[in-house]
Amino acid sequence: MSNPGGAPIHKDQLKAKYIGTGDADMSKYEWVTNMHRDTYASHVGHYDQMSYYAVAMNESVGRTKRDFLEKMLMPCGRPVVGGKEEGYEKLLNS
Amino acid sequence: MTSITSAASMKLLDLRLKHSSSIVSSAIGEFSRPDTQEIVCLRSGGTIDLYQIVVSDAGETDEDEEEEGQTALKLVSRLETRSVLRSLGVVRVSGGKRDVVVVGSDSGCLSVIDFEGGVGKVLHCPVFGKVGCRRDTPGQYIATDPRGRATMIASTEKRKLVYVLNRDSAGNVTIASPLEAHRPRTVVFDLVGVDNGYDNPIFGSLEVQYLELEEMVEQERRRKEERKEEGQDEELIELGKYGDGFTKQLAYYELDLGLNHVSRRWAATVHRSACCLAAIPGGADGPSGVLVGGEDYIEYLHEGMASPPVTNSTGKNHLIEPKRLICAVPRRELHPISKGILITHMTVLRQKKGKFFALAQSELGDVFKVTLQMSKEDKTVVTGITVCLLDTLPVGTGLNISKLALLFVPAEFGDHGLYQFDAIDIEDNAVKCTSEETISAFLRSGPSKDLEDAEGLFYSAPQKAASIAPTFRPTVLRNLHKVFSLDNLAPITSVLVGELAGNEVSPQLYALCGRGPRSTLRILRHGLSVTELAVSELPGVPGAVFNVRDDQVAKNGKFYDRYIVVSFADATLVLSVGETVEEMGKESGFLTTEPTLACSALGNGGNGERGGGIVQVYPGGVRHIQRGSVSQWHVPGIKKIECASANESQILIALVGGELIYFEFDPMSGNLTEAATRDVGADVSSLDVGLVPKGKSRSLFAAVGCRDSTVRLLSLAPGSLLEQKSSTALGTTRPHSVALSNDMGGDGAGEITLTVGLDDGSALRAGVDAVTGAISTSPSRRFLGARPVAVSRVILEGSPSTLLLSSRPWIGRAGKGRHAMAPMSYAPLDHGCSFSNEAVREGIVATSGNTLRILSVGESGGNDIVLGAEDDEAFNSTRVGLRYTPRQMCLLSAKITESSRKIVLAVVESDCNDIGEEAKKALGFDETGKLKAASKKKENDGDGMDMDEDSDEEDANMDEKKEEGDDVDDDEENDATRQTPIRGPVPAEPGCWGSCVRLVDPADGCSTLDCVEMDRNEAALCCASVRFHSRGGESLLAVGTVTGMTMNPLRFGCSHVVLYRVVNGERLQLLHRTKVDDGPVLSLVHFQGRLLVGIGHTVRLYDMGKRQLLKKCELRGMPTMVKTLQAAGDRAFIGDMRQSMQFIRYDATSNRLVLVAKDHTPRPITCQELLDINTVAVGDKFGNVSILRLPRGADVGAIDVTGTRALWDSSREDATPKLETLCTYHVGEVVTGMTRASLVAGGAESLIYVTVTGRVGAFVPFTSRDDVEFYSSLEGFLRQDVPRPTGRDPQAYRSFYAPVKHVIDGDLCDAYIMLPYDEKQKIAERLDRTVGEVVKKLEETRNALL
To answer: Which residue of B has its CA nearest to A61?
Structure first.
């Protein structure tokens, strides 16, 4: 990808500008986290979906919304450090 | 339903029957004109409503004259945006006297809307981002500067834009290009415009920044190493609690007006659980700053605020760091101390200069008043906060306080309420907590090295809060009383259509609504509700009824009726209307030995003119009764008068054979003069001279219905008396009655509408040119009932309407641009006319058989959808209270005796995160708030009926309640109960449920027959009626239950299928319970004389055994969880929680279930409805409706007739046939229930759907190619031309998740009516039709449905 002038845009620059931009080296954790954040943001934006969840959980819409926003901070738990295998398994189970 | 699916290309039209009724966001302000407070509401489904608060005078009330007058909300304006509305801001741009609305939606635009004069107009709609409810597209939050200089729009993450608002030299609002205030990786929880006088505008944002991935990984690595060193596992702190590694901040973003630049100016750490903000008045009005509401505490923060000095036990002064004030919120009794109570929204009301208070509502519905104490020396220094309990209301989505001491709370679920304050200075007596108490409790808690850390720890422990805050027990309303409620069906969980009441003409709509203790079963009937005011017996069956107006003007300048004249076959009965209705004899002057054909009071009355007396037309002549003297005109010869019509100055009679004679009243002489005669050449069946328009002396036209199937319009203008102006032919049917009505236009010019009631039971409506008298060429015709239609004029809500009587009474009225017509929910009437007196302003007097009835249309509470006022269909609802959130219902046919059967309705109700009825009672909780009388109540009934009574009383006894509410302070023993039940105590641990199975009798107003409470955390989630062939085909109720389920993560104890028998059609008898163990049971269906059960990701077929169900066969491996199940023939249709539909077949020869086909699109199914054996309509969690069909021949290979199984299964991914998607449509709200039904007896079927936010709609199949072409092209034009208040493309909205396919947006087509005339004309031309024809077509489509 390049600027109109022809200068290439650095990957990090692109990532900073457009949140959720992926690349070939993206870890599964990063991808899933992004996905979840997008999902929660979409749920929070649709009032009807919020009330659907609120009815299901028998909480108030206000609390459901706050909980969803909180979950956006770390939707898939802490990142996994250590062996790659271990992390993959943990993700699948989360 | 063959018509839906058989057409080669299936096309559906989405028609809205009822707007979605839940309110996303609301605000109060002066929008249409200065000094009139109005409420603007964003409704889910994309409408912006403007409601005016109407306080009527004491005299205007109908029932109680001594009441203080009625307060109501009246819809002024409605804007359809066709977008997802998310946030709302109100801004008074400097230099203006009115507020304008700023709306954030999913369109990537900020729209600035002005409601000048009650008409919504989009001032600006600048585009800033991509379309959709995205994480980084602003629209989720809007804040406005209290001084009206700027507005900030923010996304959930990162992006914030500030728009500077101003006015140009002409006074128009201008908007500058946006300024960015982005902050990466920052999740915003709330946004508010801080009031700091006329300094630079500041916006307060409640936000959390998360770490970048690399940092997070690094942090995690460090933690891991530390843990290794310490050699122990660290306990994980739940997200959102103190210590989870994030800090929540209140940040001030300052807009520097000079530099035109936004910067993050200041930030302070707040309570970790904080959730909402409210700005405190600043500048000259107060100390400025922000209130932050969180779990258990309300904080006050402001940049540079002084630390409050606090005296601790040792007597030393301490300064609390960081600089903030914190105050605990009073807690509910019985609330578990391990759980916090979250304040979900707050609002601030500025009273007079320098005075203000805030209201905060908790997630349980308790409303608190928050006041700040300022230091005596310096009014800008806040020294303390007091939080005291105001009242307990239904949980709302906002709090709107009006200057009229009214509080509007749009409820999350259940009816919205408008409350009047009875008291507001409640600090002395109320349950309260102060910041001083809170802070000293913190200081007492012990010394600590790190103050900030200690504080955070302290305030994040609900146990600590419970030790500080006083507790209260929610009771009846003390400081507020309800004055008005706005209907809200949300959430509707299920729907059923059928004529179950047993004695009504058209089917009813049964909807399961509401949540928790406010749940109701609502029975919706199409039509207007009618209040019966009086019924009296008559000596015979009358042939006509008339009203005669009083010639004396009442105090308020209106005429009331003096007589009701009832005509019989050979007599006339005159009833005088006064305090009571009395029969008059000869003294009235009427000829009582003959029937009456027409009668009216003459003269305009008032203005000092002499009363003109009364004219009575009887078959033998015309009788003019004037102050005791009577003059008569006899018909010459042996002819008889066949029919007649009279108004205040004109009388037209028709003799047998078709001779018309016209009389006119001369106000000067006070006499009647014969003015003209004419022979129309055909027998006349009906006549109408119309109404005298206001300020005129005569009506200019008369309508004459002739037996030769024509209706003619004659001129009554002096120059051209009885000249025929136009006529219309009716084809094969004859006119039965005619009426001319003047629809008063806004400019006073008025339009004339001709309504003809026909012999074949339909009614015809046509416009009449007010000058030439030409009848429009495209009259609209509608079938009303099985009897000839009698038409008469009535007044409804001050506007002229028509009463049409056939086998059902109907009312027609010109609404906003569209003629609305609705049946009255009442018994058939024979004759009727309008009626008005002091007690009944706008009534109807009518006869039915040999009774005379006085009726008024609309509920007495005024909470009714008035015909034509909102563009909804008129539905009236009756409601029955339920105990928990209803989940599903099913119909059962119960055997009473050998020969008779009865239809009963079974409803399963369950609430998660709740405890059972018995447990609540044991804790001493009463949801009615009626504590003292609780013991008395228990005696009455123990089966939950007490709630039903309360909700029934809700509307009818509102006035009574009001008085009771007033008395409560004086007399605690008073028998006041709550109108709306309170949510009961919340269990401390997850996985607690309250649930019951209820049996309801639809033939008896849905009274509860039996209610079986499930105990031990068992939740009934689904039900089905099943007839086991092995057991003689008796209809049994199967209920699927699960015990101790938690949803996230999904865990449960065990699940059961419980079987009940209905004994005598009134009682549930438990037959047996069968334990199933593969997952929760979410769906059940009767399947070929057995029971098919969806258990987790397994479907299993059961037959009935003596002690439990017997497993016959099963199919494992459904993708996630079976959510919905339906069956037809040997097929079953399975809706999966995530992976859309699976079709399966039962192979009887080898006794196995075989997967036939599946859908290739993953849809989280919420509901499904079978259209035919190959086709199913499904609704998903994202608000889409799709219709899926099994491709022809796809299931042939699934079952091998030879009985030899293929080695490989057809469930293999690539081998399974895939379903075709026939239609896709984005409704915009989660569709929770669908049913295939017709709303009129014998009408065509359509697909009725309901949504979680209370919308009721219908997908109507097209019946002809012409209609499809018409609607497609109309929709196409409207997509281009319709106004877009939020800048959202209608087509893109309907294609939110998948491109819209084969469904036409009826809402969009209806928007045609609201377009300006020249645009209508333009579109009509392109459609090769006239405007009238297009409108008629739209009406006809609706009429065919209802």
So the answer is: B412
Residue among B529, B530, B531, B511 nearest B521 (CA) = B511
Of residues A63, A73, A81, nearest to B246 (C-beta): A73
Closest chain B residue to the Cα of A28, Cα to Cα = B213
Decide if B162 touches A, using CB distance below 8 A.
no
Domain residue extents for chain B? 2-16+1237-1345, 270-485, 1119-1164+1187-1199+1209-1221
ipTM, two decimals, is 0.89
Class of domain B2-16+1237-1345: mainly alpha
- Which pair of tokens denotes residue B1? 């339903």
- Answer whether B1180 touches A (CB < 8 Å): no
Q: Which chain A residues are within 8 Å of B240, Cβ to Cβ? A: 66-67, 70
Backbone angles phi and psi of B1124, in degrees to 5? -130, 150
Beta bridge partners of B1235: B1248
Max CA pair span of chain A: 55
Asked whether the beta carbons of residue A41 and residue B133 sit closer than 8 angstroms, the reply is yes
**Phi and psi at residue B527, in whole multiples of 5°?**
135, 175
Cα of first residue to Cα of last residue in chain B, in angstroms, is: 16
Provide CB contacts within 8 A for B296, sequence distance 6+. B273, B328, B329, B331, B340, B341, B459, B462, B465, B469
- In this structure, what token pair is assigned to residue A85? 């295998």
Q: Is B827 exposed, middle or buried (0-12, 13-18, 19+ CB in 10 A)?
A: middle
B243 touching A (Cβ < 8 Å):
no
Lowest-pLDDT range of B247-256, B1209-1218, B1273-1282 = B1209-1218
Q: Does A92 touch chain B (CB under 8 A)?
A: no
**DSSP 3-state assignment of B435?**
helix
What's the CA gap between B410 and B393, in Å, rounded?
A: 10
What are residue B1339's phi and psi, to 5 degrees? Answer: -65, -40
Alpha-carbon distance values, B436 to B325, B346, B386 (Å): 9, 21, 9
Return d(Cα B385, Cα B1136) in angstroms, integer: 51
The CB-side HSE value for B463 (13 A sphere, CA atoms) comes to 4
Whether the Cβ atoms of residue B845 and residue B832 lie closer than 8 Å to each other: yes
- Write out pLDDT tens, residues B16-65: 888 888 999 999 999 998 888 999 999 988 999 999 988 876 444 344 44
- Packing angle of the helix pair A28-45, A84-93 (nearest 10 deg): 20
Nearest-10 crossing angle of helices A61-73, A28-45: 160
Cα atoms in the Cβ-side hemisphere of radius 13 Å centred on B630? 13
Q: How many C-beta neighbours within 10 Å does residue B1243 have?
A: 14
CB proximity list for B479: less than 8 A, separation 6 or greater: B390, B391, B421, B422, B423, B424, B426
Tens-digit pLDDT profile for residues B788-822: 899 988 877 777 788 899 888 888 877 666 677 88
C-alpha to C-alpha distances, B19 to B43, B69, B190, B915, B1219, nearest whole angstrom: 9, 29, 28, 33, 32
- State the nearest Cα–Cα gap between A5 and chain B, in angstroms: 23
CA distance B526 to B1158: 38
Q: Measured between CB atoms, which of B133, B397, B914 is closest to A61?
A: B397
Could you give the CA distance from residue B1042 to residue B325 in angstroms, rounded to a whole number?
46
Cα first-last separation, chain A:
35
Tell me the one-letter amino acid at B1174: N
pLDDT bin (cut points 50, 70, 90) of residue B1099 is: very high
Q: Is B319 helix (H, G, I), strand (E, B) or coil?
A: strand
B462 lies within 8 A of chain A by CB: no
Separation of alpha carbons B553 and B606, rounded Å: 6
Q: Is A12 on the interface with B (CB under 8 A)?
A: no
The answer to whether the Cβ–Cβ distance between A48 and B1183 falls below 8 Å is yes
